[in-house]
């Protein structure tokens, strides 16, 4: 099953608990902390453009990249999407017309990479398209997060529909499978059913540090997303902040 196809049209409805405002403010804080000027920003794995549009509203020229055509259609249909360039590309092969001041990748997009080689590829591409001293900022869900999920099921019934979210984490491979089933009610009382499978991977901090170094980037900091402070053993999501240093 291809991810983010039928689910794209209802994604924002069921993801209404995601703190996009806070995450966008975090990125702006990091831009200021590490002297990112008001330049072009590429949002890698932008989905429906929630972060992309918030950074656009903050004054940045935005490029949004996602592999899902359906998610990009939702992004472009938003009222505040004017002036944003959206590109349908795989993050492992993305191409830009020139360099940018920063590349960001949030909402665990990097967890969709399957292994170290793919992680390294994306880091190298980000480095290639960054302006001198440009920033690459991304988040990842941690191994602790997936361990807490384990094998579990999350279900929610709403007035307009319902979803079932089954999780299966393999600690030996650090791979997590999400099985989504969504029921959306039509005006005539019938239901549409969508099914998707999402695969994510838990990278270790050491793997990510190694990929950043091997790609030629300089690691500036690692932060717990929830606290914006040093990572803890029970951190669920981390920011990695890296800088271009070779141009």
From TrEMBL:
InterPro entries, A to Z: Methyltransf_25 (IPR041698), SAM-dependent_MTases_sf (IPR029063)
Gene3D superfamilies in alphabetical order: S-adenosyl-L-methionine-dependent methyltransferases, Vaccinia Virus protein VP39
Key word Plastid present: no
Domain annotation Methyltransferase: ranges: 41-134
Cited CDD domains: AdoMet_MTases
Chain segments annotated as transmembrane: none
Pfam families associated with the record: Methyltransf_25 (PF13649)
Molecular function GO terms recorded: methyltransferase activity
Keywords annotated in UniProt: Methyltransferase, Transferase
One of the GO biological process terms: methylation
Protein name per UniProt: Methyltransferase domain-containing protein
Origin species: Pseudobutyrivibrio xylanivorans DSM 14809
